[in-house]
Amino acid sequence: VDVAPCAHTSCAPEMQQAVDSRQTLASQLSENVAVRKEFAALAPDAHVYKQMGPGLMKQDQAEARSNVEKRIEFIEAEIKRAETRLRELADKGEKQKNELVELQTTLQAREQEA
Questions:
Q1: DSSP assignment letter at 60
Q2: CA 114 to CA 110: how far, in whole Å?
Q3: DSSP 51
Q4: Key word Mitochondrion present in the record (predicted)?
Q5: Whole-prediction pTM value?
């Protein structure tokens, strides 16, 4: 019996949610790294604007860079947390798969005895 981890268990929706979360975080990280690269190419006296509602507000370049760095650090920490959760769910699914295979083996042995 070839059963993928979490395929027939209650952890399947949780696993999918964790995968989706990880993908969203990866996308956010990519966007913020691109912003960091843009900041690296900016002249020191260049103006930086932040969107606030429907308008743009001037923001200090150093503050904007700091905000992006903090976001990157936060997202990286969240990615690590999401990956840990994915490993936990995969382990849980593998354990459930092994239990299912063991039960099926026991059932087949009993059927052959009868």
A1: -
A2: 6
A3: E
A4: no
A5: 0.75
Fold of 12-105: Helix Hairpins (1.10.287)
Residue whose entry in the numeric block shows the structure tokens 């690296």: 40
Among 56-60, 77-81, 105-109, which stretch is predicted with the lowest mean pLDDT? 105-109
Q: Is the dihedral of CA 28, 34, 37, 38 positive or negative?
A: negative
Q: Pull the structure tokens for residue 66.
A: 């700091």
Pair 96, 11: CB distance under 8 Å = yes
- Domain boundaries of the chain, sorted by first residue: 12-105
Partners of residue 55 on adjacent β-strands:
52
- Spatial contact of 82 and 22, defined as CB atoms under 8 Å apart: yes
* E-assigned strand segments in the chain: 48-52, 55-59
pLDDT digit string, tens, across residues 21-37 = 999 999 999 999 999 99
